[in-house]
């Protein structure tokens, strides 16, 4: 007969208290990992959002997805823009109109022809505003603001040396904007 001391055990007994302790410690580690990941993720989102908010010193009121663009120039005029802004409305000023969008708008030629190029030079406490001569029918106008412009005719009669027309105006506080208008 064999003694039980000389034979290796055929099974191993584990107490139920030891199993529960092991299971609880694994559950605690899993919940700690999930909780730490959740807290770390939330703080990362908060920091990223804060950095984005604090990095901007300006705002964009609206945006579009554009399809490209370019620059077009002719004479003294240059126009740069993008393609694919179907929500851009019609822009107009003076004798010019610009319609944005995927397809070109109706091209309306100016009824006055090409406007002369306006030159503005600073000279001491004066501003010299001039344009090529002959340019018949044009009136020089000025305004203090482009926000809600109130254009007024310049009172002085322009001088004309046969090549250039112009006026010399005294500088005033604030800004002034000038244009040639053909009534």
Structure description:
This protein folds into 3 domains: 36 residues; 31 residues, no CATH class; 63 residues, Immunoglobulin-like. It is 22% helix and 30% strand. The protein contains 1 helix and 11 strands. Strand 9 and strand 10 form a beta hairpin.
Q: What is the helix/strand order? A: HEEEEEEEEEEE
The first-level CATH class name of the largest domain: Mainly Beta
Number of domains: 3
- Number of E-type strands: 11
Strand order of the largest sheet: 5-6-10-9
What key phrases describe this protein's structure?
183 residues, alpha+beta, Immunoglobulin-like, 3 domains, four-stranded antiparallel sheet, three-stranded antiparallel sheet, 11 strands, 22% helix
Condensed summary:
The protein has 3 domains: 18-53; 69-99, no CATH class; 119-181, Immunoglobulin-like, CATH 2.60.40. The chain is built from 1 helix and 11 strands, in the order H-E-E-E-E-E-E-E-E-E-E-E.
Give the topology, please.
Blueprint: H1 16-55, E1 68-74, E2 77-83, E3 90-93, E4 96-99, E5 119-123, E6 126-132, E7 139-143, E8 152-153, E9 159-160, E10 164-170, E11 177-181
Antiparallel strand pairs: 1-2, 3-4, 5-6, 6-10, 7-8, 7-11, 9-10
């Amino acid at each position: 007969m064999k003694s039980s001391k000389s034979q290796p055990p055929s099974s191993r007994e584990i107490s139920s208290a030891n199993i529960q302790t092991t299971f609880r410690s694994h559950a605690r580690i899993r919940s700690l990992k999930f909780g730490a990941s959740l807290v770390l993720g939330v703080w990362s989102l908060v920091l990223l959002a804060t950095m984005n908010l604090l990095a901007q010193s300006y705002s964009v009121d609206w945006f579009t997805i554009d399809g490209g663009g370019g620059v077009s120039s002719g004479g003294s005029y240059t126009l740069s823009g993008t393609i694919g802004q179907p929500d851009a409305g019609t822009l107009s000023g003076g004798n010019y109109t610009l319609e944005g969008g995927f397809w070109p708008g109706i091209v309306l030629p100016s009824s006055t022809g090409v406007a002369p190029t306006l030159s503005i030079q600073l000279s001491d406490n004066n501003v010299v505003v001039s344009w090529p001569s002959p340019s018949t029918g044009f009136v020089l106008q000025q305004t203090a603001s482009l926000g809600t412009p109130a254009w007024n005719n310049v009172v002085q009669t322009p001088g004309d040396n046969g090549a250039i027309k112009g006026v010399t105006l005294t500088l005033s506080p604030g800004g002034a904007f000038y244009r040639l208008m053909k009534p």
